[in-house]
Write a structure and sequence with these properties.
By secondary structure, the chain is mainly alpha-helical. The chain contains 12 helices and 3 strands. The chain has helices spanning about 15-30, 45-50, 55-65, 85-110, 115-125, 135-155, 155-160, 165-175, 185-200, 205-215, 220-225, 230-234, and strands at about 40, 70-75, 75-80. It has a 3-stranded antiparallel β-sheet.
Length: about 230
């Protein structure tokens, strides 16, 4: 029997029992890039893997479908989404607005000593080296931690909680076959985060919000899942 790793999910979980645990595990897999665009998910194979009946698998798949990770194809089964470039850019536009609101709140509400937490992570991110292909795992993890700390500076846990499903969807999209993420892209992203950090420190909420929006909206292009030309066309 497969060990179910996640007791809690990234997003709000209306399920219970085995269904909830399986959903949390599978959502964690999506966020880690385990599943790829267009993958076919067999409910039967998943039931064997987790050592459960079909019912909790169907419930978990239904919740994943509701969150937009998969679609159900008649006489085929459940397939991981294959979003268009426009759909990916639309998602990050919306996500950027949400992250921007939290950055603005962070500028208004942060404690003086909390900025040092962002600086510590920024130094670790700057020390990362690019990989030959794809988004470096350690880089992605540290950037995720930086954003998590930024959200904590907003002191808006209820709002941050409601955005959890967007964080995991963002990870899922960015980890899909990203092209080589070179040092130049790392420098650009680091410069943007530094500007956001400076705006937060001086409590310039409108600037922090706008800079965060632009930073998040640009992630698909910087990581290579959407080309610059396609992003402009969309």
């Amino acid at each position: 029997m497969h060990k179910i790793l996640h007791d809690t999910s990234f997003s709000e979980n209306p399920l219970s029992g085995k269904s909830a645990s399986i959903f949390a595990e599978m959502e964690g897999r999506f966020a880690a890039g385990y599943y790829k665009f267009g993958d076919l998910l067999s409910a039967g194979d998943l039931a064997k893997e987790f050592g459960v009946s079909m019912q909790p698998i169907r419930s978990a798949i239904g919740q994943l479908r509701a969150l937009g990770y998969i679609r159900v194809e008649p006489q085929v089964g459940s397939r991981v989404i294959s979003p268009t470039n426009e759909e990916i850019m639309d998602f990050f536009c919306l996500f950027g607005r949400m992250e921007g609101v939290l950055a603005g709140l962070a500028a208004e509400r942060h404690g003086e000593r909390q900025i040092a937490m962002l600086d510590k992570l920024a130094a670790q991110i700057d020390a990362c080296k690019s990989s030959e292909r794809g988004l470096p795992e350690h880089y992605a993890r540290l950037v995720g931690e930086w954003h998590s700390v930024m959200r904590s500076l907003a002191h808006a846990p209820a709002l941050a909680w409601r955005l959890r499903s967007f964080w995991s969807m963002s990870d899922f999209l960015l980890l899909q076959g990203a092209a080589s993420f070179d040092n130049e892209q790392i420098k650009i992203a680091s410069q943007q985060r530094r500007a956001i950090r400076d705006a937060i420190e001086v409590r310039n909420a409108p600037l922090a919000e706008q800079l965060m929006y632009e930073h998040v909206r640009g992630k698909p292009v910087r990581t290579g899942i959407v080309s610059k030309d396609n992003a402009q066309d969309g």
